[in-house]
Write a structure and sequence with these properties.
alpha+beta, two-stranded antiparallel sheet, single chain, 34% helix, elongated
Length: 88
């Protein structure tokens, strides 16, 4: 008899975990994703930020908008080779 009680508890735990997993998947599906769109036609001209004998640093502003339903970060735009190691 105790075997069936333990088995029913184990099955109840498995069913609860499966239900929570399905609820989580539905939440993620509803949440959507960010869709960051760069606006290169509205970019500013390059300007010199720093200059010395070994290097020159240029910068410009490129505006972007998020058309998706989820909040995105600017980190999503950069390839991983550009992002510093401490951010992973």
């Amino acid at each position: 008899m105790w075997f069936y009680n333990i088995l029913s508890v184990v099955i109840a735990i498995i069913v609860a975990i499966a239900a929570l997993y399905l609820l989580f998947r539905l939440f993620v599906l509803k949440q959507g994703n960010e869709k960051v769109i760069l606006l290169p036609k509205r970019a500013t001209n390059f300007q010199v930020s720093d200059r010395n004998f070994e290097s020159i640093t240029l910068f410009c502003d490129i505006p972007f908008v998020n058309k998706g339903r989820q909040l995105g970060t600017i980190m999503d735009l950069f390839p991983t080779s550009i992002v510093a190691r401490g951010t992973f």
